[in-house]
Amino acid sequence: MGTPTLWLATIQWLATGSRHRPRLGRQSGDAPRAAIGLLSATALPLPSAPLFPRIALKSRRGQSIVRLYHRPKTNHSLRHPIMKLEHIALNVSDPVAVASWYCRHFQLRIVRHLPLPAQTHFLADSDATVLEIYCNPPDRVPDYRSLDPLILHLAFVSADPASDSERLVAAGASIVNETHLPDGSFLIMMRDPWGLAFQLCKRTSPLI
């Protein structure tokens, strides 16, 4: 009988009710202790992968007699720290003008400006969500106007998308489409003066 087979047979014997297994001593409690002694005497190695993820046998008084748990050791030093999104970056043709437009019409603020070599601007909203814009490399600026908004777009919370869209159209933006969702949410997809798509979102249930 191989090691796994003997372990299986012993566990099955332990799990069997006292009425269905032979007595090995004067008291029913001697049987589990005798079985444990048998395992110790045979000095069989515990299989590398436990045969039973969780087994607990209890005596008539409710006290645990044998417990075989598969509890992987947790090395707390290996736990990954919680990662937080720091920023999203976009390569644009005129970072100074783009930064000014979004600060003026979306109440973003410049939290860091690196004039050289690419006029890098870090723009943040009131909740510290950061958008980085720069022109680097200049010959690799995407043609945002030709991109489907579903491929790339920004999104802003709006209490009144209809009113905000009118205000932004007057500032040089254009409307792409409007969407009314079954839950009552209202979304308006637009483009800024450089063709980058953005969305005004009034959701019935906020994402966060």
Shape: globular
Find the structural class using helix and strand composition.
Answer: alpha+beta
Overall mean pLDDT: 78
Strand order of the largest sheet: 3-6-5-4
How far apart are the first and last residues' alpha carbons, in Å? Answer: 59 Å
Instruction: Write down how many β-strands occur, each being a DSSP E stretch of 2 or more residues.
Output: 10
Based on CA atoms alone, the radius of gyration comes out at: 34 Å
Q: Unreliable segments (pLDDT under 50, ≥5 consecutive)?
A: 5-11, 24-29, 34-44, 46-59
Hey, roughly how much beta strand do the residues contain? 25-35%
Helix percent reads: 10-25%
H-E order: HHEEEHEEEEHEEE
Number of helices: 4
Major sheet: 4 strands, mixed
Describe the fold and architecture.
By secondary structure, the chain is α+β, with helices and mostly antiparallel strands. The protein has 4 helices and 10 strands. Helix content is 23%, strand content 26%. The strands form 3 sheets. Strands 3-6-5-4 form a 4-stranded mixed β-sheet, covered by helices on one side. It has a 4-stranded mixed β-sheet with strand order 7-10-9-8, covered by helices on one side.
